[in-house]
Amino acid sequence: MKIALANILLGLAFLLWTAAIWRGEARWRSAPVHVAVWLYVAASFGSVVFSQEPLYSLGELGELATLFVIPMTVSLLDRSGWERLIRLLALTLAASSVVGLWQYAHGASSLAHRLRGLTTHYMTFSGWTLVVVLLLVGDMAFARDRKRLLWTLPPALTGTTALILSYSRNAWVGLAAGLVLAAAVWKPRVILLYPVIAGVALVILPGPVVERAVSIVDLRQPANYDRLCMVTSAVEMIQDHPVFGVGLGMVERRYPLYRRDDAPRWHVPHLHNNVLQIAAERGLFGLASYLGILLTFFVSTWRMLQHRDHPAFPALAGCFLAVAGVTVAGFFEYNWGDAEVWIVTLLCLAAPFALGREAA
């Protein structure tokens, strides 16, 4: 239901945007990231044409409509719009995290039953929360007006707490990567405090959460071993279909044919890794375009961040941290395919090209 509502609102936004361009009230603005996006779209169409089941894959093309978030953001977003957006995201994060903490206190405190906040799935909650928390970290670390902490710090703290209690290891790794990167850009000496903070956290956190954290490095843990098996299966899929992959939506359907004999599960919805999933589904052409999107974003945004007096510096830094964190998390979970997480990720990917242009 929530996904349907999001898609309806996205479709309405697209219609209003195109109408505004037609009337001259808005205009198309090009950005370097658009080239990689169009290549990703082309790879997706190629994946349908050369799919093992073209008609089935054709039904998966609808997800590409979400990519219009990028050109719409580049075309319409300005600093005042960003300010309204970041406040709305902070408010939503606070509400979702409070609900999640309430769920944790009322039984959603185990791997079998995890908190999910206002979302329909715990992985969606952790992915979305990760992105918004790191956006706020960038704002808090680099904003010139310290009064902003009054409305950024509380949701960031509640969001981080709920994220830690969500048992989502990929999001924990992404959060750690984002926080280390934030300190490296902000005050490198702060990194020296992180081991102390981690030590204190291990003492005060509930035992099951600590055990879950320790299991990250245990290759014998069933979920970890399952992911290692998926790597082997993904490589074989790519070797058999290197250019356009097995087809959109076909990884789940073809996995049993490529499954290792000792893999814990017979069926998986995806390969729990953005790189492997995209390469297996869309081939090396799709993988190259995905990496091109990320490379264009990181290089362009990093260049903007070299100017500390940039008026949109906190927003640029927040976007940089958010995309970095969700990308690292994406090595352990297919968060590129989660619609709610994807929308806010695409927003962060596009925002620097709009805000950087405005200040140029």
Helix and strand content put the structural class at mainly alpha
Question: Any low-confidence stretches, pLDDT <50, length ≥5?
Answer: none
List the helices and strands in order: HHHHHEEHHHHHHHHHH
Strand content: under 5%
Global morphology: globular
Estimated radius of gyration? 20 Å
Which key features would you list for this structure?
mainly alpha; single chain; two-stranded antiparallel ribbon; 360 residues
Structural features, described:
The protein is an all-alpha fold. The chain has one domain. It is built from 15 helices and 2 strands. The protein has helices spanning 2-23, 33-49, 54-58, 69-76, 79-105, 122-142, 149-164, 169-185, 194-204, 207-214, 222-240, 250-258, 274-305, 313-329, 339-359, and strands at residues 109-110, 113-114. Strands 1-2 form a two-stranded antiparallel ribbon. Strand 1 (109-110) and strand 2 form a beta hairpin. Helix 6 runs parallel beside helix 15 (339-359) and helix 13 runs parallel beside helix 15 (339-359). The longest helix is centred in the last third of the chain and has 32 residues, at 274-305. The radius of gyration is 20 Å and the shape is globular. The chain starts with a helix and ends with a helix.
